[in-house]
Amino acid sequence: MSLTMYQASIPVFIRMLGNLSAILDKASIHAEAKKIDPSVFINARLAPDMYPLSKQVQIATDMVKGCAARLAGIEVPSYEDSETTFVELQARIAKTVAFLQSVTAEQIDGSEERKITLKFGSREVHLLGQAYLLDFVYPNFHFHLTTTYAILRHNGVEIGKMDYVGND
To answer: What confidence score (pLDDT) does residue 1 get?
Structure first.
C-alpha cells in the first residue's frame, strides 16, 4: 500500500500540533505554579538572533496551513500574527487544526507533481508538491516545533521527549 500525500501531511500536522498544544499547556501551568509572568516564556528566545516562542508557534502553524492549502490548490488562510498569550497561541493552534481538518484527502491526494511557488520578498522558489512537503515543509515545521520545545525546556518547564513526540 502506498502512502498518499494526504496521509503524509494532514494527520502528521494535526498530531504534532496537538503535541505542541499540550506542551504550551504545561508551560502555562508551570508559569502559574512558579508565579512566573507567562510573557517571560512567550517572549523567550534561545539566542538573540532567533525569534521568540510566539513567533516560533506562528511560523509552525503558518507552515502547515500553507502546505495544506497549496497542496489542495486553495487559498492560504491569513492570520494576523498578533498572539501574545498562551490562550491566544492555543486559539491559533486550534484554528489551524480546524482548517487542516477542513481539507480533504481528495483535495490533496495526487498533488505530488503540483507546481508550488513560494515568494520570499522578490525571490521565488518553485517546487513540486512532494518535494515541497518533504524537503521544505517538514524540516521547517519541525525546526519551529523543536525550537518552541527547546525554549520552554531551557526555561525550566518540565517537559521531555515524549511530550514532543507524543504518548499515543
So the answer is: 66
State how far the Cα of 21 lies from the Cα of 12, in Å rounded to an integer. 14
pTM of this structure: 0.96
Q: Which amino acid is at 156?
A: G
Task: Return the ∠ at Cα 139 (arms to 137 and 142), rounded to 5°.
Answer: 100
Looking up cell 500540533, which residue turns up? Answer: 17
| Torsion angle, alpha carbons of 125, 76, 108, 6, to 10 | 90
Positive or negative: CA dihedral 15, 55, 45, 88 = negative
User: Cα–Cα distance between 146 and 152 in angstroms, integer?
Assistant: 10
- What residue numbers bound the domain in which 42 lies? 10-165
**Domain annotation covers residue 3:** no
2, part of any domain: no
